[in-house]
């Protein structure tokens, strides 16, 4: 039984892309925003979901769609192109404005970028990477 559980866990961990800090740097919030733009522009939704979004949100998205592959296919559908382009434009504007706030919630360091009424929050992970928190969209 334990062997089956370990095999299933290994198979799930092996699903998808491997972390690539050279291709998609995440050591600062600004570098992470640029990596998000790069992944979305290249339509590398697999990497975006796995590594550029906070792990809890990534798990929620994968569970919602049943698998990483299904979540990737949903985002790759042409009917979502306009939404993704709009998200990218908002991120570009946030980078151009070069205005952010920092704080800590429940021991997690965050940085928020703002464009008008839109907010994008990046949370620092235990390994030092910054990841997009899809649940924070407004100031609390």
Please tell me what the overall shape is: globular
Strand content: 15-25%
**Count of extended strands:** 4
Q: Give unreliable regions as ranges.
A: 1-14
Order of helices and strands: HHHHHHEEEE
> What is the oligomeric state here?
single chain
Calculate Rg over CA atoms: 16 Å
Distance between the termini: 46 Å
The main pleated sheet reads as:
4 strands, antiparallel
* Integer count of domains: 1
Mean pLDDT: 88
Determine the number of helices (DSSP H or I, runs of at least 4 residues).
6
- Helical content, roughly? 40-55%
- Enumerate the strands of the largest sheet in spatial order, edge to edge or round the barrel: 1-2-3-4
By secondary-structure content and strand pairing, the structural class works out as alpha+beta
Write the layout of secondary structure elements.
Layout: H1 2-14, H2 29-41, H3 45-52, H4 55-65, H5 68-76, H6 81-97, E1 100-105, E2 108-115, E3 118-124, E4 130-133
Antiparallel strand pairs: 1-2, 2-3, 3-4
Describe the structure.
The protein has 140 residues and is of the alpha+beta class. The chain has one domain. Helix content is 51%, strand content 18%. The protein contains six helices and four strands; from the N terminus they run ααααααββββ. The chain has helices spanning 2-14, 29-41, 45-52, 55-65, 68-76, 81-97; strands spanning 100-105, 108-115, 118-124, 130-133. It has a four-stranded antiparallel sheet, covered by helices on one side. Helix 2 (29-41) packs antiparallel against helix 6 (81-97). The longest helix has 17 residues, at 81-97. Mean pLDDT is 88; it is low at 1-14.
